[in-house]
């Protein structure tokens, strides 16, 4: 397949910041734990506008091309999110500890215009496995979050295909979580459609555990933050689950366990977990794990997090079982264990988790998430398909190469209401086996 050619790179800065002035934002424990991981990389695939859409777009803006239109609206969106135009700041202390903050210095975000010849929207969507060229649609590949001290916290690459555009966004994960990431994208598309305001203004006040002084010092130098993990050979495939198929999985899981509390998503993830384990040749005594990266938004009380909280709220929780017991007791039992584990993540539990973390800070490592199991990130609740930049909604959502490992599951809403897409990242032989597993594929719509 053809190579992506970079046409131009522009440093975009805020011109007229909106709202309360902010110069420095301290990183919370939620943020600090992610310094060694990679950024969030999500992108939207669009068909090129029809002649009538192009004409309408030109009437509503002073720009003449889609590239200029998106670059201009990107700059206006940054006015509402000035931290994303900054850099990470670091103070290395004499006791070998470090503290980090967001320096809102308006150093700028990157906007890259690129072109790939002879590649169509169908070339991206039609193959069974995600084409490797998709990873080239994203900027800042291979950079850990702590590199934000010298690299942009936000970079966007607009890649022009034969018949479409791909907007690939890379955002520092020590600065934002998925909710904050999509709030920026939603706001950018809103402005791109002609709005002068945004529906959900970000709130830059940070949440810290009670009694914690700022800045927080962590016992790591930059050198010690380097993650030596190198992922094995991997393939990615997107599986589509309709609303009806998900409802059937939910009904089956609740029926098997004699309850009504298991959610649609818990049933779907349990189906994935059991299926992946079933497709592997592993000992029945081997421990298998499922790590859920859940959000603490809506969980914290007294005080609760405000709407539009800007930053991270990623709260990891894991369940474990032996492979034999997981397969023997099936999807219903696995879903019920997920349900109980999530229900335990109360406001008090979240606060206690961070109290213990502050006593013994640890940085998350990529291989720890998926060791002997699976890990899920992102959410089908995020508004991805509502992002119309002025000529129509996206036809697909894709993600980049950051934070990928054998066992990483990424969740997206499907195009149809109530459906869910899951990008499954596994070793090639495991992914082939999963795709040939009749019981798993009965729930999948091709």
TrEMBL record:
<keyword id="KW-0808">Transferase</keyword>
<dbReference type="InterPro" id="IPR023213">
    <property type="entry name" value="CAT-like_dom_sf"/>
</dbReference>
<dbReference type="Pfam" id="PF02458">
    <property type="entry name" value="Transferase"/>
</dbReference>
<protein>
    <recommendedName>
        <fullName>HXXXD-type acyl-transferase family protein</fullName>
    </recommendedName>
</protein>
<dbReference type="InterPro" id="IPR051283">
    <property type="entry name" value="Sec_Metabolite_Acyltrans"/>
</dbReference>
<dbReference type="GO" id="GO:0016740">
    <property type="term" value="F:transferase activity"/>
</dbReference>
């Amino acid at each position: 397949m053809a190579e992506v050619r970079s046409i131009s790179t522009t440093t975009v800065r805020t011109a007229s910041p909106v709202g309360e002035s902010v110069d420095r934002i301290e990183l919370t424990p939620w943020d600090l734990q992610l310094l060694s991981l990679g950024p969030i990389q999500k992108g939207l695939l669009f068909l090129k506008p029809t002649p009538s859409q192009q004409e309408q777009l030109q009437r509503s803006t002073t720009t003449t091309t889609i590239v200029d239109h998106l670059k201009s609206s990107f700059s206006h969106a940054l006015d509402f999110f000035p931290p994303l135009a900054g850099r990470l700041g670091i103070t290395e202390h004499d006791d070998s500890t470090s503290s980090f903050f967001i320096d809102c210095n308006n150093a700028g975000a990157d906007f890259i215009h690129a072109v790939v010849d002879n590649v169509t929207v169908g070339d991206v969507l039609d193959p069974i496995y995600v084409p490797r060229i998709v990873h080239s649609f994203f900027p800042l590949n291979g950079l850990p979050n702590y590199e934000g001290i010298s690299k942009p916290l936000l970079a966007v690459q607009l890649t022009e295909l034969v018949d479409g555009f791909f907007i690939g966004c890379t955002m520092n994960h020590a600065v934002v979580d998925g909710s904050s990431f999509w709030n920026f994208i939603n706001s950018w598309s809103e402005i791109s459609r002609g709005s002068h305001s945004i529906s959900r203004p970000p709130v830059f006040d940070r949440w810290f555990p009670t009694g914690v002084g700022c800045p927080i010092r962590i016992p790591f130098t930059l050198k010690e933050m380097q993650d030596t993990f190198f992922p094995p050979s991997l393939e990615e495939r997107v599986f589509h689950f309709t609303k009806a198929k998900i409802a059937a999985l939910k009904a089956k899981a609740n029926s098997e366990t004699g309850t009504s509390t298991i959610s649609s998503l818990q049933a779907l993830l349990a189906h994935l977990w059991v299926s992946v384990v079933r497709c592997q040749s592993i000992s029945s005594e081997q421990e298998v794990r499922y790590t859920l990266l859940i959000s603490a938004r809506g969980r914290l009380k007294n005080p609760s997090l405000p709407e539009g909280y800007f930053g991270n709220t990623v709260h990891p929780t894991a369940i474990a079982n032996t492979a034999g017991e997981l397969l023997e007791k099936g999807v219903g039992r696995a879903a019920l264990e997920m349900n109980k584990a999530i229900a335990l993540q109360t406001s008090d539990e979240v606060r206690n988790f961070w109290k213990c973390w502050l006593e013994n800070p640890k940085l998350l490592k990529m291989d720890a998430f998926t060791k002997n199991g699976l890990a899920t990130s992102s959410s089908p609740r995020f508004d991805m398909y509502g992002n119309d930049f002025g000529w129509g909604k996206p036809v697909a959502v894709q993600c980049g190469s950051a934070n990928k490992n054998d066992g990483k599951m990424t969740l997206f809403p499907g195009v149809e209401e109530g459906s869910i897409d899951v990008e499954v990242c596994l070793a090639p032989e495991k992914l082939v086996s999963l795709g040939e597993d009749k019981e798993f594929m009965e729930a999948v719509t091709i």
